[in-house]
């Protein structure tokens, strides 16, 4: 069947490939545990689910305004005031079908064909595809585990060209879990303002930052330079609401209008019931996030100590999200020469599904999600260690 070039250029998701193989092995009777998941293993808080049930019972089941119901947009604006001291109005907020649609719409309204987007690598899998779908060009900057996978102003300046339109920042990061301090973000933001580079800040994990690290955001920079910054966020990771599909963007009112135009001609408003649930999440208190955060810290510590006990591995301590991203290329052999082959072997021999680092633009590493119970996580990491040791030179 003939398909448009646009779709043939997009790479299939590496996560899906590994999941398909895992399913085949499960169908053949093998016990496979997935450390490939990108979602919290907790239930959505009770009061959030209750708000959705009430919305249904009250018949709140019709179209809403495209950018979201006013009270939700106002609550999102309030979020930025509460956590980052930023004054925003409802006109600065659009509610989207997950954080992913925020990013999709942003690239659609910001990029002209050939515009370059700087993407620090390792990066979240969808960034290059989202840029490509907007006819943009991804320019990657490799970061190192020794520097906590953080990008520097010097590295950014080295790849800047007259075609550079955007930089995408993601802190805490998927896949590394590494997190910028506010001072590090400030330095990058100052560079971007000086050079006229628009910064999209993907802050979807901002509620999952672990002490002593502190949350950091580009929202205050948006307040100072509204035409230079946009912040994308959502409720998926913080409130264990991946399936509800609630994301949002904070940006200049003109940008919000442009994004709303795209959304109005493609998907319209997000689910009306999910909007009521999101409103309950944002206005119902933050205590419910504490046990989730505590569990993640415990698992991060457990995972990190196991990984470091493997030996020839470099793994910075993540300060947020729920991923570890060890550099394991010391173990590569002629038969297992890269992260994809290693993940295939680990699936087969350890019964653990992982996403290869290549999917995130760093073939030296593998991504381990610790969004599952401590005991299963511990068993998986022991089995991975055994397989790695069998590859020892
Ligand atoms: C870094 C990052 N940004 C954005 C998203 C999109 O989240 P959502 O489920 O809200 O679309 C994800 C989800 O995995 C992510 O890891």
TrEMBL record:
One of its GO terms (molecular function) is transaminase activity. Its EC number is 2.6.1.-. This is Aminotransferase. CDD domains: AAT_like. Belongs to the class-I pyridoxal-phosphate-dependent aminotransferase family. Residues 31-384 form the Aminotransferase class I/classII large domain. It is an enzyme of class 2 (transferase). GO terms for biological process: amino acid metabolic process. Its cofactor is pyridoxal 5'-phosphate. It comes from the Bacteria. The keyword Transferase applies. Keywords: Aminotransferase, Pyridoxal phosphate, Transferase. PROSITE patterns: AA_TRANSFER_CLASS_1. Signal peptide: none annotated.
